[in-house]
Write a structure and sequence with these properties.
Elements: E1 7-16, E2 19-24, E3 27-32, E4 45-52, E5 58-61, E6 72-80, E7 84-88, E8 95-98, E9 111-118, E10 124-127, E11 146-155, E12 158-163, E13 167-172, E14 185-193, E15 199-202, H1 208-225, E16 227-228, H2 236-243, H3 247-259, E17 263-266, E18 269-272
Parallel strand pairs: 13-15
Antiparallel strand pairs: 1-2, 1-4, 2-3, 4-5, 6-7, 6-9, 7-8, 9-10, 11-12, 11-14, 12-13, 14-15, 16-18, 17-18
Length: 275
């Protein structure tokens, strides 16, 4: 299996004035002299990232790029050249996104979600054609599975997410904190897999935990000010702006606090009851 474009634990075969040489199967890889630690000798092992340099030679580095082949990551365009856009991915050689692999024409200094891959020549490149990189037919998930979520795109419904580095999903607006940005990674759970194989996800498993959190949030807000001008007729936007939750969560939290006699309902809002 080729180590090109990935991190691997590799053993030094020999050291000379050019650097440390490594044999990985049929491949010969150079760790340049400037990156070879003092005293390195044959038999030493290092965790290295391998890629092709500007001369198409396999080289290794001890530096850590933002992503390896198969990973999704948000990166910034440093410049536009004849072959495409170049991204800053943490190495001396920028990462190329060929024009044909750009979902939209990229611009300098802007940030884009991309997937790192190998082109037909074995060079590490990236693509922003995210939809084409995601599995849509064979979904090896079930409801309530805990999953890793990468925020990929904001939509009117919520946040598009990449699930477990493999599937596309949707985190609805009511469950998506406003501070979430493209590129953020969070944990979540599969809520449902639809008949059309679209996947809905949530940040927490089941509704009980969400209700408890909403009650705590609302109670803390009331303890700070004593009164909130919110009720059943308040708009979702007003509720979101004032207490940071959906109207549905707000109504459940109010119901729970009212039953426990923590609050009273007045004509134009809710008031904290003194203990």
């Amino acid at each position: 299996m080729s180590v090109n474009g990935k991190f691997s634990t590799l053993k030094i075969d020999k050291v000379d004035d050019k650097g440390a040489w490594i044999k990985a199967g049929k491949e010969t890889i150079l760790l340049p002299q400037k990156e070879v630690p003092f005293g390195t000798k044959a038999g030493d092992q290092f965790n290295l990232f391998v890629y092709k340099d500007s001369s198409d030679r396999l080289v290794a580095t001890r530096k850590k790029p933002k992503a390896q082949v198969g990973d999704f990551s948000r990166m910034q365009v440093t410049q536009i050249g004849k072959p495409g856009a170049f991204l800053d991915w943490g190495l001396e050689k920028d990462l190329l996104v060929p024009f044909k692999e750009q979902f939209e024409l990229m611009k300098e200094e802007r940030w884009y979600m991309v997937k790192v891959c190998l082109d037909t020549e074995g060079r590490v490149v990236a693509t922003s054609q995210i939809e084409k990189c995601l599995e849509t037919e064979h979904i090896d998930l079930k409801e309530d599975d805990e999953v890793d979520l990468l925020i990929w795109q904001h939509t009117p419904l919520g946040c598009k997410v990449i699930i477990n580095n493999l599937y596309s999903g949707l985190l609805y607006k009511d469950d998506a904190p406003e501070h979430l940005q493209v590129g953020d990674r969070i944990k979540g759970f599969v809520k449902r897999i639809r008949k059309d194989k679209k996947i809905d996800v949530v940040r927490r498993k089941g509704g009980a935990v969400d209700i408890v959190e909403a009650k705590d949030t609302l109670l803390q807000a009331l303890e700070a000010v004593g009164f909130l001008p919110l009720n059943d007729k308040s708009s979702p936007e007003e509720i979101k702006a004032m207490v940071g939750m959906s109207k549905k969560a707000f109504k459940k939290a109010v119901g729970g606090l009212y039953k426990r006699r923590h609050i009273e309902l007045v004509g134009n809002g809710i008031r904290l009851l003194k203990k």
